[in-house]
Specification:
By secondary structure, this protein is of the alpha+beta class. Helix content is 32%, strand content 25%. It has a domain at 45-131: K homology (KH) domain (GMP Synthetase, Chain A, domain 3, 2-Layer Sandwich). The protein has three helices and five strands, in the order E-E-E-H-E-E-H-H. The strands form two sheets. A three-stranded antiparallel β-sheet has the order 1-2-3, with no helix packed on it. A two-stranded antiparallel ribbon has the order 4-5. Helix 1 crosses helix 2 (109-123). It is globular.
Length: 142
């Protein structure tokens, strides 16, 4: 029997901010992002990154779902727009994620819905994590 090999990618990020200025985030693989904090600044703020993580995971997961359903060759493009609504009470958090899928291609609406559901409910690590209650393990140093 052939051994299944799963390729893994290092994951993680470090954010650094000084007494003044804006945070900079570096991934363990060397990618960098400058974070914005002003409401009118172009770029990504912390909540934008949360929405971007969910959106990108969903489109990749939808592509996987389309492949599983045998229709990937008929899919032209998948997009997922993610926004959210903050809770009105404490603690500060997102109370609701709004997701708009667009799946372009020669497939019917039932298959589009099945792809979106499989992506959101089964395949996407980010949506599955947000639905759960992951543990936070912190260490503080000087």
């Amino acid at each position: 029997m052939a051994e299944l090999r799963v390729k893994t990618r290092q994951t993680g990020a470090t954010a650094v901010v000084g007494r003044t200025g804006f945070p900079q985030v570096t991934s363990v693989t060397g990618g960098t992002l400058d974070i914005v904090t002003g409401p009118s600044q172009a770029g990504f703020g912390p909540l934008d990154l949360l929405y971007a993580s969910l959106a990108s995971c969903l489109v990749l997961s939808a592509r996987i779902a389309a492949s599983r359903f045998g229709v990937l060759d008929r899919v032209v493009e998948v997009s997922a727009k993610v926004t959210g609504e903050k809770a009105q009470d404490e603690p500060s958090r997102v109370a609701r994620f709004n997701i708009e899928f667009a799946i372009r291609g020669d497939i019917d609406d039932a298959v589009r819905h099945a792809i979106a559901e499989a992506a959101e409910e089964e395949i996407c690590t980010v949506s599955n994590t947000l639905r759960g209650h992951p543990a936070f393990v912190s260490k503080v140093s000087g």
